[in-house]
Amino acid sequence: MTETTDTGERDDIGAADLVENDADSGSTDPEQEARRGYALAQVRQYPDTALRMKAREIDQFDDALATLAERMTTIMADARGVGLAAPQVGVLQRLLVYQASSEAEAIALVNPVVVEKSEEVEVGEEGCLSLGRATINVDIERGVSLTVKAKTPSGEPLEVEATGLEARVLQHELDHLDGILIIDHATPEQRRDAMAKLRPRPGSQG
């Protein structure tokens, strides 16, 4: 998942918009752009079948899981996203990482389950690292708050009470674990526009 404001600058305080955050913010640092390109190259892109498959529960909390969570966190940060789910890197396990603000620490959730979600909803714009490399944005209605129970990569129980941007990020990444994409929530018009952008152009390669 990716996040921005209408001006293209990152807004970490209660932002409802979740689209690409820094691509249009004027950054021209060659090293940063190279790292972002490398990170995005590791993210599965629509219509990759892994993005439509339901992830499996994790029952082994070992070094391999910790390494995967660290790798995903690095990819998320380098790609300038605010969240990433394991299916987006081709791993069908119920693991997600997110960092809803630059001041917060990145969090990894294993086998996350929503135990409570508010009836109050709000509409916000969302983008996705797996859809046109964060170039597709759609308006989505999400609950304004929710509580998630999960485990850390080391197997410790964890409960997250999220509101605002954090709640939206979590709902977006939880969808990924069930093979759901933002285009599935889009209005018919926005879905048509998104699919037109995602459709390979005649004569395109790769």
Description of the molecule:
The structure is a single chain. The protein has one domain: Alpha-Beta Complex (Peptide Deformylase), CATH 3.90.45.10. Helix 1 packs across helix 2. By secondary structure, the chain is of the alpha+beta class. It is built from four helices and seven strands; from the N terminus they run ααβββββββαα. The longest helix has 16 residues. A five-stranded antiparallel β-sheet has the order 1-2-3-6-7. Strands 4-5 form a two-stranded antiparallel ribbon.
Topology:
Elements: H1 30-41, H2 63-78, E1 83-85, E2 95-98, E3 107-117, E4 121-127, E5 137-143, E6 145-151, E7 157-163, H3 164-177, H4 188-198
Antiparallel strand pairs: 1-2, 2-3, 3-6, 4-5, 6-7
Helix pairs in contact: 1-2
